[in-house]
Amino acid sequence: LDAALTDLDAVLALEPTNMDAQRARGVVATMRVENEKRAQRARQPEVRRTKVRAKAVPSTPPKTQYELEKVWRDLKTEPAAFAQYIKIFKASTYKKVLKESLNEEVLSGMLAAASEHLSSEAAARMLHGIAQSSGFSMWRMMMTAADKSHIADLAGRIRADGEFSDGLADAFGV
After folding, report:
1. Torsion (CA) 137, 140, 141, 145 in degrees, nearest 10
2. Per-residue pLDDT of the chain (174 residues; tens, 9 = 90+)
3. Alpha carbon of 172 to those of 53, 58, 80, 120, 149: distances in Å?
């Protein structure tokens, strides 16, 4: 584009009234400016700003297993937030929500969150509630090694605080 501008300037120096040369020079000059802007934008990486929103932890316990699973799906990547949610469960919540069948993934997520983030009192309430559910005996037979490890960690912490009952130990086999 610089060579074209030089050539057009030479033509206009010889023929200053040449309208075609004047229009062509204006077009080429505009193209040169646009080209420089485009090159400058290509050199500067675009800064993208992503809004990161903290996921809201519900303030009321679930009424159905579906509600529990929905919240678990939303919070499964944030165990601390899921543990905060579990803390608000009452003893009756577990019985009401887990009366149908036990979703192994949700229970595994609950154990992992509890193992890392729940107090021993809340963890004992959770384990007791799970043990009272109708599908517990089947789930206990299908527990993964990670689930057993989380239960052992929780049991050790709860025992240290003196809140682990013999019935709970028998139920979970620890």
Report:
1. 180
2. 788 889 888 989 999 899 998 999 999 999 989 988 888 877 766 666 666 566 788 899 998 888 989 999 999 889 999 999 999 988 888 888 887 667 788 888 999 999 899 888 888 888 888 888 877 888 888 888 998 899 888 888 888 887 667 677 777 776
3. 38, 29, 24, 16, 11
Contact assessment for residue 25 and residue 5, using Cβ atoms and an 8 Å cutoff: yes
Instruction: Retrieve residue 172's tokens.
Output: 């979970």
How many residues are present in the chain?
174
CA distances from 41 to 1, 29, 33 (A): 19, 19, 12
